[in-house]
Every structure is written in structure tokens, then in C-alpha cells.
């Protein structure tokens, strides 16, 4: 029996998240998680600033005599771009700027990276993923019928960065992940773990045709535990220690660098723009903007009424979506009719394939006990 529609009275998460729970006042468990687990442990005041200064001092000390004291993965989106600005101009860090080209860069992304690199006088290292392997990997996920189509791209980004840091003994990875705009987590039924190798291997075994000889795989235990606790490679999220207001960051980047904003978070990748803007809401009925807007509501950067109005308009342009659909199909080497077949096929989810969810659940609980993770992912 289908569940009656309900939307949170505090944010804009609703029953498109099928596991959402509401209290007697109609407030959802995402809001409860933020208020009980995240907000009390999130310090962007003097305490947070002092903690960040201590981290920066440690990074600088360990980086003495080296060309770089840290590595920063940059997509060209607002979070990583603002982090780069802060790290260099406010804290004097010397990052190697690292970019992974998965084959779907938008012109905006390339330009945004370049204008910042040029003005800050930094080095940019770009790793290009083998397109034939990426294409085959992405097609395998389309053929599988699951919603989490971004895994081939996201896994490459994470694995390449960690592999590079390990190879060249870089101990600190600066990450633009942040509570301010990401405190509400995407439901796992739609955006599943990107490093579940049991799932990846099962889908590849069933649907891939390429041996993937150069694609950079990285099992979760390798980068979450081995690299972190044995090799001492540490991920640092500086934006969690300072006030980070998205609208102010956008204005600064535009004025200081001639940086160009995107219509939506994660749209620096043309594939992600199509996937999150069209495929996910139209095929699975889940709009990632609900998560993004709810995060901004909880951190005081957007009011609920504004979010509701924005959600009435689709994330994609109805007049251009046919051309975009055809572009995606052509780049993947298939016909629009074949891509439409994948859109219309029966829906599958992560539980329809082999997975390591129990291991991930155990790891999440352990990281929460250690204080590494604050929010709950479900």
C-alpha cells in the first residue's frame, strides 16, 4: 500500500524519501538529526577557528621543504572553489590543486578552475580517466536499472585523489565537503555508497564489456581505514570550522576571480546535471534539490517558502531536455532509443545486487563513536 504524501513542516524533505519519519508536529527525522547530532558539535565560532588554526599549523609544519603542503581536489563547483580561496588567501596553505577529468566537464567547470589557478599562481594537476572504460562503466549502471548512476564518476574522483596522495606521500587532503550546505544527507535508496566494491563488481560482472585495466578502483577499507590510520593520510574539511554562507561565497568568487556560478549544486559535471536534474526526478521521483534546499533552510540560508516555490519549477529546461538527452546518448555511444529503454525499464535499487551495506553500517557507527561522523546516513 502506497504511503500518503507528507512534507516536513520545517524543511522540504517529503515522502519521496520513503524511509522518512515525522514526529507529532510533522517535523522530519532529518531535522531532528541536525538539531540533536550535528548542530551541537558544529563550531564556526572562536572554538572552530582555533581548531582550524591548529590544523593549519600542523599542515604547514609537516609541509616544510616540500613543493606542496597539501592536496585539494577541485571540481570547479562553489565548495571546492571557495575552499581554495580560503586555504590560500586566508591561511597561507600551499596546495597542489588536483582535478579529475571523467569525460563530462562543462566549459564552466574548466573556466572556473583556470581563472582561480591563474590569479592565485598555483599548479594544477589533471588526471584524465580512460574514456572507453568510463563509458562502459556508466553504461553498466544504466543497464542495471539502479538510481545511483553517478558512482562510476564519483568513485574515480575519490580513488584517483587518494591514490595520488598515497603515491606521493601527501598527508593532507583538503575537502570542500561541509555542514553548511550538506547537513541533510541523500537517502541511500537513491544515492548509495560509491565505494561498495561488492555492488560495483556485481554490476560490472553482469553488464560490463570492458576489462577496466586502468580505472582507479579504491575499496572503502583502503581509504577510510588503511590510508587514514596506517598511512596517516588525513582528510580535512576547513569549511566546517568557519562561517560559510553560500550566497556570500558566490559573490566573492564572482567579484574576485570572474568565476561563473551554476544553476544548481553539482552541475559542474554535464553528466551529473542530466542525472540529478532530469533522470533521478523523472524516473525515480526524487529531486536532490529537496536535500540541498533543506540543508540551506536548517543553516538559515534559505526560507522554506522560497524553497517550495523553487521546487515547483523543474531542475531541467523542458525546451532543451530532448537535445540534452540525445547528447548524453551520443556521448555514451548508444542511440536515444536505447537510452530511453533504460529510462523505461523496471526500477532496481542497491538491494537488488550484491552489497556490503552491513559493513558500511558498522563502519558508520564506529566513525560516529569516534566523532569523525556527526550525522546519520540511511
From TrEMBL:
InterPro entries: N-acetyl_sugar_amidoTrfase, Rossmann-like_a/b/a_fold
GO MF annotation terms: transferase activity
Source taxon at top rank: Bacteria
Signal peptide feature range: none
Coiled-coil segments: none
Keywords noted in UniProt: Transferase
SUPFAM superfamilies given in the database record: Adenine nucleotide alpha hydrolases-like
Protein name: N-acetyl sugar amidotransferase
Species assigned in the record: Sphingobacterium alimentarium
Upper lineage: Bacteria, Pseudomonadati, Bacteroidota, Sphingobacteriia, Sphingobacteriales
Amino acid at each position: 500500500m502506497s504511503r500518503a504524501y507528507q512534507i516536513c513542516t520545517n524543511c522540504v524533505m517529503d515522502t519521496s524519501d520513503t524511509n522518512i519519519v515525522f514526529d507529532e508536529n510533522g517535523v522530519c527525522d532529518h531535522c531532528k538529526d541536525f538539531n540533536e547530532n550535528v548542530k551541537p558539535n558544529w563550531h564556526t565560532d572562536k572554538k572552530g577557528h582555533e581548531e582550524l588554526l591548529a590544523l593549519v599549523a600542523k599542515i604547514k609544519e609537516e609541509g616544510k621543504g616540500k613543493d606542496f603542503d597539501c592536496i585539494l581536489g577541485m571540481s570547479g563547483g562553489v565548495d571546492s572553489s571557495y575552499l581554495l580561496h580560503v586555504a590560500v588567501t586566508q591561511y597561507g596553505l600551499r596546495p597542489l590543486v588536483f582535478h579529475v577529468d571523467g569525460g563530462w566537464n562543462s566549459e564552466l567547470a574548466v573556466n572556473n578552475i583556470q581563472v582561480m589557478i591563474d590569479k592565485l599562481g598555483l599548479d594544477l594537476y589533471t588526471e584524465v580517466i580512460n574514456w572507453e572504460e568510463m563509458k562502459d562503466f556508466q553504461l553498466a549502471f544504466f543497464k542495471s536499472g539502479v538510481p545511483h548512476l553517478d558512482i562510476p564518476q564519483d568513485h574515480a574522483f575519490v580513488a584517483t585523489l587518494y591514490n595520488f596522495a598515497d603515491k606521493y606521500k601527501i598527508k593532507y587532503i583538503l575537502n570542500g565537503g561541509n555542514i553548511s550546505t550538506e547537513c541533510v544527507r541523500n537517502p541511500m535508496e537513491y544515492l548509495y555508497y560509491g565505494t561498495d566494491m561488492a555492488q560495483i563488481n556485481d554490476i560490472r560482472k553482469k553488464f560490463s564489456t570492458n576489462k577496466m585495466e586502468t580505472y582507479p578502483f579504491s575499496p572503502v577499507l583502503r581509504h577510510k581505514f588503511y590510508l587514514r590510520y596506517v598511512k596517516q593520510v588525513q582528510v580535512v574539511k576547513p569549511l566546517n570550522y568557519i562561517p560559510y554562507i553560500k550566497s556570500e561565497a558566490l559573490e566573492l568568487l564572482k567579484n574576485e576571480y570572474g568565476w561563473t556560478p551554476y544553476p544548481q549544486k553539482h552541475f559542474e559535471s554535464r553528466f551529473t546535471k542530466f542525472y540529478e536534474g532530469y533522470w533521478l526526478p523523472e524516473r525515480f521521483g526524487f529531486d536532490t534539490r529537496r536535500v540541498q534546499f533543506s540543508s540551506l533552510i536548517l543553516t538559515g540560508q534559505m526560507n522554506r517558502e522560497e524553497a517550495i516555490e523553487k521546487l515547483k519549477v523543474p531542475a531541467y529546461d523542458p525546451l532543451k531536455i530532448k537535445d540534452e538527452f540525445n547528447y548524453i546518448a551520443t556521448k555514451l555511444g548508444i542511440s536515444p532509443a536505447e537510452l530511453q529503454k533504460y529510462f523505461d525499464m523496471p526500477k532496481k535499487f542497491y538491494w537488488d545486487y550484491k552489497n556490503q551495506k552491513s559493513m558500511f553500517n558498522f563502519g558508520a557507527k564506529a566513525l560516529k563513536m569516534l566523532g569523525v561522523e556527526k550525522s546519520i546516513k540511511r
